[in-house]
Amino acid sequence: MSDQLFSNGDTSGLYYLPPHRQSTVSTAAGKTGLRVLSADIISPATKDAVLSRLGTALEFPSWYGANFDALFDCLTDADWQPAKGHLILINGMAELRASDPDSFATLIEVLQAAAESRQAANSPCWIAIDTPARGVPGLPEA
């Protein structure tokens, strides 16, 4: 995989990334100086458990309230995980979609909004989920 994708902050956003590509993509992102973080949100796939796991895996500050508003606030906070940009890999999304489709849809909306906000602030964040979702494109190869 070419690391050119991560050299252009205008390409940041929310993407679908199949698990078999994650290692290659992580390596490419690291080579460009991005901070690579990952979160496994597999079972039990309840909204509360998923939000709690995200907070722990992504090392959110102690004020993180494990709700969708706090998730957005942490992902867009310039002081959280200082870096020139981020690649966040989230695995286990299929379980949440199956058990709580409404929370899955809300999580997708929050992740999209956070990535867009970061892009507008010139602080790119690529968020890659392991499950296809409506309106979420696949991460390009290059």
From TrEMBL:
Occurrences of domain Barstar (barnase inhibitor) (ranges): 36-128
Coiled-coil region(s): none
CDD domains: Barstar_evA4336-like
SUPFAM superfamilies registered for this protein in UniProt: Barstar-related
InterPro entries in alphabetical order: Barstar, Barstar-like_sf
Organism domain of life: Bacteria
Pfam families tied to this protein: Barstar
Family: Belongs to the barstar family.
Protein's name in the database: Barstar family protein
Organism in which the protein naturally occurs: Dechloromonas agitata
Lineage, highest ranks first: Bacteria, Pseudomonadati, Pseudomonadota, Betaproteobacteria, Rhodocyclales
